[in-house]
Amino acid sequence: MRRASRCGRRGWRRRCKGRWRMGEGAGAGERERERLYGCVEAGGTKMVLGIASGAGAVLDSLTIPTTLPDETIGAAVAWLDRAARPYGALSAIGIASFGPAGIDRGGADWGRITATPKPGWRDCDMAGPFARALNLPIGFDTDVNAAALAEHRWGAAQGERVAAYVTLGTGIGGGVVIDGRPLHGRTHPEMGHVRVRRDPADGDFGGICPFHGDCLEGLASGPAILARWGVSLSDLPADHPGPAIIAGYVAQLCIALEAMMAPGRIVIGGGVAKTPGLLARIRAAAEGLAGGYFPGFDGARIVAPGLGERSGLLGALVLAEGVVGMR
Fold first, then answer.
1. Residue closest to 21 by CA, chosen among 10, 31, 29
2. Contacts (Cβ under 8 Å, ≥6 apart) of 72
3. CA distances from 295 to 47, 178, 270 (A)
4. What pLDDT is recorded for position 203?
């Protein structure tokens, strides 16, 4: 079991339990107990579970593999129920899920994974089992929308009216926050499925997306890199053209975001983004594509997550806070 750095130490767990703070607007001597939330970052490869407080403190956490729905969701529900007991009653659950997902609370597919290519997960009810087993309100959105919310609140996009979060990993996705709220249209953004201009040095690879072939996800996701070159991006030789090719594709998305939304920050996360030197390559490629046209834009607006690997889990916390009192 993996715990937060302080709350996991012997003795500190007891101090975390029942921790108090002054309620906003409370008179002298009045105290309000911090609300507790269950948090689920549901990725295609793993799920990160947490018990967190409204102060943004993760009191306990666990990572489990994403296998089949019944097994994975059942294990997540059981852990949240058990892990919360030493701390107190949960107020809500936040689920930051891989997609595509139904995010319209009034829609028939709300809380469900929809047209995913992940075996066994198509049309999976993600939110329902948590609601039924724990009898709590559920906040539900995509993992990238949730990460964007967390980075806006606590991380690298603080203070920005418009900010984007892009993840480069098993898949590629992105979310946008405008005035503190995630961008929703008929559904959520699908940035990983934009079409990009092919690099001339990459013409022989057809792409792996089962829907579009050589969209951004089909060309630059972790599985696409492995299918094309046989190893991860960080394991390629120093003189290999792969990192420059991938950076160029991601830079095209960054410039598209700049042209359409002019975000103050574009946060780039995910496992592929940890490749040494890749962020610098993306910045340089984006500046070249911008051609000096966009006022105030430079590569420095493209940044790493301020919250590191916690963006998704803390995003689930933000989602949970938003549904307290709802059913």
1. 31
2. 47, 64, 65, 66
3. 40, 19, 28
4. 83
